[in-house]
Specification:
The complex is a heterodimer of chains A (224) and B (507). By secondary structure, chain A is mainly α. Helices cover 75% and strands 0% of the residues of chain A. Classes of the chains: A mainly alpha (224), B mainly alpha (507).
């Protein structure tokens, strides 16, 4: 845990970048740009894993695996799919400015609530201290942002990106809560949803070829 | 309970996966090779599952690789169900699937994919039921979803693509909620003083259970909420069930039998393995599960009543019936767990039977709309008899198997002080009888419109492999109804395995 104290400021800074990148991922209409923002978001997560788990074999393995899958492989798959699919996401259920307002307000409110009352949720006194407190509050915020994207966005690619936000939020919570045990790295490596995301993108391409759109609201037209 | 190192749990996973991969790799070969590979692979797996059951009946727990592979009475019961049902589904598929592939390109290769993925799925299913490692549970559960997603879109119709996407998306979102729950539980255990976790492996469910009463209560409740959403989505509980009606309706009928028979049960199994370790210390969890389970029961059957598509009716009925199972398992009492497990076995068999009978109806009549069916009883008497057995059994009428399991659940809920839950369960049972008897009467003895009479005149009984598989399941359903004690040793052992964990927590 010594490394945590040394890099506390850096970890919190990375977390802020992670949260801002998550908001950009959620709101960016251009899907290529959203994927680039996702790369930044995932990269910050990987660096946080490396910093918090410094010197532990399984954590370094998780960092390397995360870098390979979240930062390189998945963005590559997304960008390849976007070559076939529309670059601009299908119109969301909520209009852009309203959605932007909801996201900003939600992030601020959720973060504030979690940051204030986190002591009731964390397992140890140490976890209620910085930087864990901030990173944990941000982890839950990113997770809820992922759920928001999955519910409100209509574009299949954007919904799949929402799934990745969910996963990154859960992984951030995991590394924030237990950075010092090898099992944390094992959980992180094993629970990667790269296969599911790849399959979902495949479904997106098949749907686009059948319907000419990736709008999930029009999926029911496939039944006709 | 004694532990014994055994290779059997690994064999139950590796055998179907190896034969499944062989079928996929040999895709250029003929139909007989794929069918033979699937039959041999699952016959061997079924033999292994009987050996596992034989080994655990005296309370022994089979372990391998520390306790990462861990088969107790409950795991053995689930492995037996999935292996035997898988074998019967393959027998049924041999004459059925080729008739459904007539209009599809590369039908031979599609058969290799069908059998290959079916076997890989059953291997993953056995893995889920033979692990004590919470991360392996998560991983294998996700792999069962990935393996079945392609089976859901097997017909490659436009509607099946929608169903497949919805299934994969919603269950993946659900499983990520479970991941958050797992992270919180693990952190709650890791946060305890080192003296309390010394010698414990915090990824093993049995070791997590030993610390569950000392974990931070608010963290445990939050973690359980995430686990209920996650595993509840896989189980098809209301309100996380949206994927289920479409996936069950659009998948090939033998796959629907497996989806309804065992895929949703694995979600209930994961709930039983994880949530129940907290129920002795957190009574709020029992009430919360009872509310969700009751909502599933009543919502599912009300939706089933208004369906004209037979497969959607069966799918919504599964939403309703999973409510019974989860309610029983969540009660945390011996009677509740016994009743929940008994109903799990019964529903696996009965719903598989009805879905297979529905496949036979679709094969002979070419439609699954109840309003377009009628008069099939004279032309397909075995199919009619099997469907009727299933319909009466799912309604919980004596002398069929679900009568005893539902009765046990009613009593268990009342004994736990949840009289309202018992009343909802009884009311749901009455609606289920009405729903299924009405459908069976309409399909087999109802009057057809003038235009469809001619089609019915050309209809005959399905091939022997199909009705043989259905008749075998129907025979078990009747046997378990007339002699419920046949299943008692297996169910008693499985229920005691859950209770032993609860007892460990309570003490």
């Amino acid at each position: 845990m010594g490394s945590v104290a040394v890099n506390s400021g850096l970890v919190v800074t990375l977390m802020v970048i992670h949260l801002l990148a998550s908001m950009v991922v959620a709101e960016m209409k251009n899907l290529r740009s959203a994927v680039y923002a996702l790369i930044v978001q995932s990269l910050t997560l990987c660096v946080v894993i490396l910093l918090l788990g410094w010197g532990q074999g399984w954590m370094i393995a998780w960092f390397a695996w995360g870098l390979a899958t979240k930062v390189i492989l998945l963005p590559y798959l997304f960008l390849r799919a976007i070559k076939i699919l529309p670059r601009q996401e299908a119109e969301p259920v909520v209009s852009s400015w309203v959605s932007f307002g909801i996201v900003v307000a939600s992030v601020l409110v959720i973060y504030q609530i979690l940051h204030t009352y986190l002591a009731a949720l964390v397992p140890t006194v140490a976890a209620a201290a910085e930087p864990t407190r901030s990173s944990l509050a941000m982890a839950f915020t990113v997770f809820l942002l992922g759920i928001y994207v999955c519910i409100v966005r209509r574009d299949m690619v954007k919904v799949i990106i929402g799934v990745l936000l969910l996963e990154n939020g859960a992984h951030l919570a995991l590394i924030s809560l237990v950075p010092s045990r090898p099992e944390t790295g094992i959980i992180g490596i094993v629970t990667n949803v790269v296969l599911a995301a790849w399959l979902l993108l495949y479904f997106g391409v098949v749907t686009f070829r059948a319907l000419g759109t990736t709008d999930t609201m029009k999926l029911s037209e496939l039944k006709r | 309970m004694t532990q014994q190192t055994s290779i059997l749990p690994l064999l139950a996973i590796v055998l179907p996966v190896a034969f499944g991969c062989a079928s996929i790799l040999l895709r250029a070969h003929g139909r007989r090779l794929h069918e033979g590979t699937a039959l041999i692979g699952l016959a061997l797996t079924a033999i292994v599952s009987f050996m596992i059951v034989g080994a655990v009946m005296d309370g022994t727990i089979l372990t391998l690789w520390g306790e990462n592979f861990y088969v107790d009475g409950l795991g053995a019961l689930m492995i037996l169900l999935s292996s035997v049902l898988g074998l019967l589904v393959v027998v049924y598929s041999i004459p059925f699937i080729p008739t459904r592939l007539l209009e599809i390109q590369h039908a031979g290769r599609r058969l290799s994919t069908y059998y290959g993925q079916l076997l890989v799925f059953l291997g993953m299913m056995n893995w889920t039921c033979s692990t004590n490692n919470i991360v392996m549970l998560y991983l294998s559960l996700e792999l069962t979803t990935l393996a079945t997603a392609f089976l859901v879109i097997f017909y490659q119709k436009r509607a099946s693509i929608e169903a497949g996407y919805k299934y994969l998306m919603l269950v993946t979102v659900g499983i990520l909620c479970a991941l958050m729950g797992i992270a919180l539980i693990y952190s709650a255990a890791a946060g305890l003083p080192k003296t309390e976790t010394q010698g414990l492996h915090l990824l093993l469910i049995s070791d997590l259970a030993k610390t569950s009463d000392r974990m931070a209560p608010s963290l445990v409740l939050l973690a359980n909420a995430f686990l209920i959403v996650g595993f509840g989505t896989k189980a098809g509980l209301v309100p996380f069930h949206a994927w289920l009606p479409d996936a069950h309706a659009e998948a090939p009928e033998p796959i629907s039998a497996l989806l309804s028979g065992i895929v949703i049960k694995v979600g209930a199994y994961a709930l039983a393995r994880t949530i129940t370790i907290f129920s002795p210390s957190f009574s709020a969890i029992v009430i919360f599960i009872a509310i969700i389970a009751s909502a599933s029961m009543i919502f599912g059957i009300l939706m089933a009543l208004v369906q004209d598509d037979l497969k959607r009716m069966l799918a919504y009925s599964s939403v309703s019936q999973i409510g019974y199972i989860v309610e029983g398992l969540g009660l945390g009492t011996y009677l509740g767990i016994y009743g929940g497990l008994f109903h799990l076995v019964n529903h696996t068999l009965i719903k598989a039977l009805i879905f297979l009978a529905t496949g036979a109806i679709v094969m002979v009549a070419g439609t699954r709309k109840i309003s377009e069916l009628g008069g099939l009883g004279r032309r397909a008497p075995v199919t009619a008899a099997c469907f009727l057995v299933g319909a009466l059994a799912i309604g919980g009428l004596p002398p069929f198997s679900a009568f005893m399991s539902k009765l046990t659940l009613f009593i268990a809920a009342a004994e736990r002080g949840l009289m309202w839950a018992a009343v909802i369960a009884v009311f749901t049972g009455l609606l289920t009888v009405a729903c299924f008897v009405r459908a069976a009467y309409r399909i087999f003895w109802g009057q057809l419109s003038a235009g469809r009479e001619m089609i019915v005149d050309e209809v005959g009984e399905v091939p022997p492999a199909m009705w043989g598989a259905m008749a075998a399941i129907a025979a078990v359903v009747i046997t378990l109804g007339v002699y419920p004690k046949v299943a008692y040793p297996l169910l008693d052992n499985a229920a005691k395995c859950i209770l032993q964990v609860l007892g460990g927590v309570a003490s």
